[in-house]
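Hi L., both proteins are below.
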Amino acid sequence: MAKTSVDINTEQMERAQTILGTATIKDTIDAALRRVIAEEARERFIDLASTGCFAELADPEVRRKIRS
């Protein structure tokens, strides 16, 4: 893990801590980074799903085979 010094806007940090429910700067930054990464993963999934690549999962026969 890297240690870095940065200037942080105190008001933004306090607001982020309230939103994220975190108590420390480190926890807030970690939580914010996790959220950014998760949001990007959601966007990639939505893009992938919009291509129709999961359409066959609506077929009851395919779903039955997956569950077996």
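That was the first. Here is the second:
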Amino acid sequence: MSDFTAPGFTLAETPLLSRAAIDRAEQLRSDMDALRAGWADALLLRVNHRGQVRIADGGLVFEAAVSLGAEPALDAVFLGLLDSRHVWAVRVPALTGELGDLRMIGHRLDESGVGLLTTAVALLNWHDRAGFSAIDGAATRPTMSGWSRISTSTGHEEFPRTDPAVICLVHDGADRVLLARQPVWPPHMFSVLAGFVEAGESLETCVVREIKEEVGLDVWDVRYLGSQPWPFPRSVMLGFAAVGDPAAALTFADGEIAEAHWFTRDQVRAALDAGDWASSDAELRLPGSISIARVMVESWVKTGYGRPSD
């Protein structure tokens, strides 16, 4: 570890999925009288198992909630209020028409749309995997308008899980950043390093461990940047920056990383200028705009070593 302390940087903007501006109306989740009263005028978002919804004119397509029945459906989840109207979401096996998922259309949605779709996907993904109690193995049923599930055997209540994961931009304190590619990613697609927090582990310790495990690199000067929900399937990404030595050897022992390289600020800027969906023969392709990884890289390009970009 070096004694050098790199100039810090902050996120240049709030990550897209963290800009959610919805009224979750938590006080209504257990108020069945209020939920029934609002059901007649409520909006419904149908989400298929690929996380896709119907879209039109760059926005979400809502249907009438009463299309599910005369009162709130057991498998529907209450998302909150939109212009004083109740909004619900439900999983469906198939959809027709123009479809899009959060990765594809997130950048086109307003703050309410982003918040509603992110919450819907996260909640429904949890329900898909929470049909049996982790405590007693019994079947569970939804309660609290989709915000908890109860064991049919013991009455034990379980709540939606969110798995914390760190995501870290490693730079050299000057003009280079370390980016890596997973084996399943397309050629030339690189991003910052990430991994899940283990039991009994602090976030900062996780950053150091994950980077060492994935690319064999020691890092220091770990600094928190910001966070973003990531409902694929049910995570929250906790963004950090750290410093590493470009002269150190990189190793890929655990198989999660196929290759990693140090890129210059000019190389990264050129990749950002190419847009979200750079051609497959581009020298460097970066994550899409809904990812906190994109914001982290953009922010480093602007202020990565203590001065604004040219």
